[in-house]
Amino acid sequence: MEKMKLEKEKRLLEKKKKKEEEKLKKKKAGRPSSSRKGGARKDNYKTSYTDEDMMKAIKMVQEEGYAAKRAAEICGVKRITLHDRLKGLHSSELGRPPVISPEEEEALVQILVQMGNFNYPLTQRGVLEIVKDYLDRHRTTRKGHLTNRYNT
């Protein structure tokens, strides 16, 4: 009886492990290219082609002289999206560009982590004030603007 329970548990663990491995394989196989179906969140939709498929179709049109319609059929991508990408109308990035650079973000993260290490409590307002103060001190020009909805 005990042996049967152990075997059953072993089979269940193997099934779980196999499912997790399949999920990882799907993720590694290539992220689906984006298309705007059904909402603004990228996680809400999938396409049947990867970014590599789209890049291959673009290469076929630009370098090998294929018609966009034919390249789209061969690579399995949407014809309209391919046309838009070729014209520069369709970007793979969604949303607006970031207001702060990655270097500025890293510096701010280090400041906030250091404050956390000193057990300094931070509220949302406090974080916004630190970010604004940092940008005012370190930037001569502003790429964008941070709205200070907490007028202090």
Task: Tell me what you see in this structure.
This protein is mainly alpha-helical. Among the domains are: 42-87, Arc Repressor Mutant, subunit A, CATH 1.10.10; 96-152, no CATH class. Helix content is 57%, strand content 0%. The protein contains six helices and no strands. The chain has helices at 2-28, 51-62, 68-75, 79-87, 102-117, 124-138. Helix 2 packs antiparallel against helix 3 (68-75). The longest helix has 27 residues, at 2-28. The protein is flat. It starts with a helix and ends in a 14-residue tail after the last helix.
Please give a handful of descriptors for the protein shown.
single chain; 152 residues; mainly alpha; Arc Repressor Mutant, subunit A; 6 helices
Outline:
The chain is mainly α. 57% of the residues lie in helices and 0% in strands.
Number of separate helices: 6
In angstroms, what is the radius of gyration?
A: 25 Å
Estimated helix fraction: 55-70%
Beta-strand portion reads: under 5%
Overall pLDDT metric: 78
Class inferred from helices and paired strands = mainly alpha
Instruction: Tell me the span between the first and last alpha carbons.
Output: 71 Å
Order of helices and strands: HHHHHH
User: Quick one: overall form?
Assistant: flat
Major β-sheet annotation: none
Stretches where pLDDT falls below 50 for ≥5 residues? 33-41, 148-152
Q: How many β-strand runs?
A: 0
